[in-house]
Structure formats: C-alpha cells, structure tokens
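Researcher: Go.
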Amino acid sequence: MPQKLNWPLVEGNLAAMLRYLTAGESHGQALVVILEGLPAGLEITVEEIQAEMARRRLGYGRGPRQRFEADELTLIGGVRHGRTIGSPVAIEIKNTEWFRSDRWHKEMSPAPGATEQALTQVRPGHADLAGMQKYGFTDARDVLERASARETAARVAAGAIAKKLLSQIGIDVWSHVIQMGSVRVPSEVGRPHRHDLDRIDESPVRCADPETADAMVTEIKAAAKDGDSLGGVVEVLASGVPVGLGSHVHWDRKLDASLAQAIMSIQAVKGVEIGDGFEVAGRRGSAAHDPIHWDEESQRYRRRSDLAGGTEGGMSTGELLVVRAAMKPLATLNIPTLETVDTATKETTVSFKERTDVTAVPAMGVVAETMVALVLVAEAQRKFGGDSVSEFVRNARGFADSIGAVPGHGS
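Model: Structure:
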C-alpha cells in the first residue's frame, strides 16, 4: 500500500517559522496584522512599534495624508506585561482619517449597500483594471483600496517585532536611498553603517550622501511642478547575519529567492538585485566573484568583496547582506495625463486622481527593511528554533561557536 504523507511533520516545520497575515483597506476602519510563531519572552512595546512606523511616513515628496494620518495601534493579543507569550500577536492600526470624519463611512461600510459613484477610469500601472477583470468588479475601488501601499503600515508593524527578535542574535537591518529619478549616489561614495541610520532618517530623502540628497530634492520639486511622479532605488543592508540561513537543497528555501519574492511583493517595486547582480552580469568570471580568505584575527572565513551581496548558493555567507529594490514612478498623478478607458462607457479618457505622493521611494526603503527582516527572522527560526527567546539565542550561539563565529560579529 502507498505510504501516507506525514502531515504533522510538514505542519511542525511550518510552525517553527514566523508567519504573518495582514487585513484591511486603505480607507477602512483599520489595518490588522497577525504574527504567528514568535518565541515567548521578547520584550516589545507599542511605543517601539510606533517609532518604527513613524519612519514609514518620512520623505520629501509625500502627500498630505502623511501629515495627518497618525498610526494609532493597539496590541490585541500575544503580549502580556511587555513580553510575548508564545501565542499569535495581533496588532490593530486604526485609520484616524475614518474617525476624524464620516467621509468614508458609507463608501467603505461593510454593511449591505452600493456606492454612489463607481470609479471606472482605471489607472495604467495600477492594479485597477486587472483586479476588476479577475474578480468581476465594476468599481475600481474594490481593488485599489486593498492594492494601496497603505497596507504596508501593517507590514512595518510586524517588521518592528521581527527586527527586535533579530537584534537578540546580533542582526541589524537598515536602508538608504541610492537613486531618485535620474539622480544616483556616485559609485565612489561608500555604504553607510548601521550607526548612520539616524542621520539617514533625518535626510529629506533618506539618502546618506548630503550632496546627492540635495540633487534628489531638486528632482522631486521639478516633478511636483509638472504634476508628475518619480521612482527610484533603495539599498537594504543587514549585518551580523549568521552563516547558513536559507538552503541550497530546495528551490523554495533559497535565501536570495525568498528575499526577491518578499521585496517584489511591495507595491510598485519592479526590480530586485542581490549584491551587484546586474553589474557582474557584464563581467568575466575572474572579476565577478568574492575571493575567500581565512582571517586569523576573527578566526573565520571572510570574503574580500561583497559582489554577491552576502549570499552564495541560496545561503547566507556571514558577510554583509545587500539587497536593492527598484520602485517605478507612482501610477497616480497629481495632474492625470495617462491615457486609459472608462470601463463603463469604453470611451478613451485619462485616469482618475486619488490623493497621491510625488514619490514614495524614501518610505519604500523602510518597508523593504521590514520585508528583509521578516525573511531573515523566519529563516533564523527555521535554523535555530526555540520556544523562548533565551532558547533561540542559545541555539544561535551554539551554532556560531561550532563554526568559530560569534553572532553579531559580521561586517
């Protein structure tokens, strides 16, 4: 007789990893995120999560919503007396715009009813038309409310907890903007370190190089004057990543593949690069890889460069992790000019205007940090396990000691 698949083993493997699910719409009452798989004993407060979420609202070129949409969050479950207790953590993020006025109460009501004015002038480059066709909707708002980047607020809340857990084993994650429109940080400018993050966040465009930041602001001002939008590129860096997160064995457990999927899930991101992936594609092999040497001082293997971005064969190498995300210009323009079709009349028109930003690249960097942190914490839990934070840390230290490298002592 054929053997039955041992489902408990499969479920046990999944249960060892952090999983999360977000819910809610842009102009609804609230966003919600549930995290499952956090070990017990992680110290976390509402204030810590709110501080991380405030970073998501940073950046020159953001729209008016960022000035009045404070993130009022509540820890619903999974945390007692400032510590996780091993059960799923539930976080609610209230939409203050909903409670400030009744503008959206009828339009976004869950009760039976109908909209007074359906949106039918779909936007090129947005989820509107494909979503309407997929689900059989006649109103683009049924799509755009969930497709909105407002959803990332819930992800950042989850990411704040992921970062806190990663810090227990010496992993730090940060980001900076390296390109805005056509303006890019010169290649000779070095990468910022983790201790530069406060300075980066103080930059109006979250760029570590002040001269380039000024040029980026000028670029944004020019686009704003024309009622247009800008895209750009952010670089996410992670230090202290231990050797061996991910796997070369299975295609769906390769670390770089998981990172690419996570980054591509961010609204408006159209490209992902690990290390100098696109540049080395044009080189010969003799100049495209990171030489390995034995470092006597740290008693560990090191790479002399970081072209591979901290991964080889789908696994982390213990070097600095480097992930870049390219964001397209936003599809909603302050002066709509993109040609489209009214889905109700089939007449040619221009896409409708919803309140928008000139650019959201600086904020996307914070979201990209979140996605990298969530991938790393899931893989760290898969490798080290542990029902409590102390057990998780002990297991990580034991592995590091076994290969002669202490967690947190990476580049």
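Model: The CA atoms of residues 282 and 288 lie 9 Å apart.
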